Amino acid sequence: MTFLQFPNGFWWGAATSGPQSEGTFDKKHENLMDYWFRTKPEDFHNQVGPNVASDFYHQYENDFKLLKEIGLNSYRTSIQWSRLIDDLEEGSVNPEGLAFYKKIVQEAKKNDIELVFNLHHFDIPIELVHKYGGWTSKHVVDLFAKFAKCAFTHLGKEVKYWTTFNEPIVIVEASYLYGFHYPKYFGHGKEAAQVMYNLNLASAKAIAEYKKLNLPGKIGIILNLTPSYPRSNSKEDVYAGHMADAMLNHSFLEPAVLGKFPELLVSTLEKDGILWQSSAEEMEIIRSNKVDFLGLNYYHPNRVKAQEQELDLQGKWIPNIYFDDYKKPDIRMNPYRGWEIYPRAIYDIAMDIKNHYGNIPWYISENGMGVENEARFLENGQIQDDYRIDFYEEHLSWLHKAIEEGSNCFGYHAWTGIDCWSWANSYKNRYGFISVDLETQNHTIKKSGYWMKKTSSANGFESHYEVHP
Ligand code: BG6
């Protein structure tokens, strides 16, 4: 056993989002998830929607007490565009929404918890999708910048950490390429490429608004990285890995940190006739509004091999024409979520950021393990989630190794603090340090919550994992 000490001031925290925790309040605007659930509840596990979620809207005081009790010193949630804004075209404030988010700011402060406010977590107001085509529209990009400005103006003096988007690549994949979020398009390559570009532009425009206000904090973006591990060292497999990284990881990482798009991505989309529409002025906005820091979500790696078959896409486009999933034998899986467990990738990500992205300050903004039917682990009123503690300790051991080797990582946020609602999976898999009883809405600390308390107060833990890169 070795005690792993983390740097002074290290963030021990957790992340959630507005739509997944709050419960629907103020129905002035529906967001995409509200609408999707209202019109197609059968798409959601047990037909449970976001209406109540984990009732953060009513329970935030008690929730912050619990988060404090488990030793968190930082916490990310998101401000919902559909709740903060009154007139979407004007970007004017909705007093009810603002009053709620102000209470969140106060409560975090009262509990000595550093708040990170994120501005978009898959929750575009649905009328902007129906009226303008959502993120395919540059008008929507400008409306987002107005929303961002409104949030910064009203809350930017007190909140020191802001992020523009959570996992923007998921919007591209889920709504336009693979069809698992509303409007569930499959293979809409041209729109997907435009959405990819527009989201990068929207992030840069929001950063520009932030800078204009001369606020005392920092602004970043939250990206989910799924590093590619090719099947072999063959030229074809390695190329497949480069392509997957260019499309799924570097498409947001490079613009955010380096202010430009990857050449491989641009040349491929151009060759395929689906490159986005851009202007020199917009490219300059992206170039001159890079992030101050990164939040990186890590759940699983991407095992790839060369694409050996000609896909019969009938005019559709998906990036998988350039790579294929590789079913690697003998991997560890989280069977509930169907994701591979591969903790070493955290070290690889950290080294990649150090070596290729100027060692920009960053933190793990999500990492976690969703487990189904956790009630079976209930003993004397407490969920005994030892598997989750093991999962965190193993990932943190690799992160610690990277920090020892000079990675500029300043924190670790688990997904999630309090069990929350999820897109389509609803409450199937639970991830929290704190459990939610959906019938009573009682929130109760799990064993992992007490593990987090001990870890954050010691700023480290005794690890039995040997990590050798
Ligand atoms: C991340 C998202 O991709 O993973 C969260 O930022 C999400 O919103 C989390 O809930 C876990 O994924 P899922 O699909 O199991 O809820």
Q: End-to-end distance, in Å? A: 18 Å
Low-confidence stretches: none
| Small-molecule binders | 6-O-phosphono-beta-D-glucopyranose
The tally of strands reads 21
Q: How is the main sheet built?
A: 8 strands, parallel, barrel
- Biggest sheet: strand arrangement: 2-3-4-5-6-8-13-17
Q: What is the molecular shape?
A: globular
Mean pLDDT: 98
Structural class call reads alpha/beta
Number of helices: 16
Percentage of residues in strands: 15-25%
Helix content: 40-55%
Task: Give me the Rg, rounded.
Answer: 21 Å
Helices and strands, with pairings:
Blueprint: E1 2-5, E2 11-15, H1 18-21, H2 32-39, H3 56-69, E3 74-78, H4 81-84, H5 95-110, E4 114-118, H6 126-132, H7 138-155, E5 161-166, H8 168-177, H9 189-212, E6 218-224, E7 228-230, H10 235-248, H11 250-258, H12 263-271, H13 280-288, E8 293-297, E9 302-305, E10 324-325, E11 333-334, E12 339-340, H14 344-356, E13 362-366, E14 371-372, E15 378-379, E16 382-383, H15 386-404, E17 409-414, E18 429-430, E19 434-436, E20 443-445, H16 447-458, E21 460-463
Parallel strand pairs: 2-3, 2-17, 3-4, 4-5, 5-6, 6-8, 7-9, 8-13, 13-17
Antiparallel strand pairs: 1-21, 9-10, 11-12, 14-18, 15-16, 19-20
The structure holds 6-O-phosphono-beta-D-glucopyranose.
Residues 17, 20, 166-167, 224, 297, 337, 366, 370, 415, 422-423, 425, 429 line the site of 6-O-phosphono-beta-D-glucopyranose.
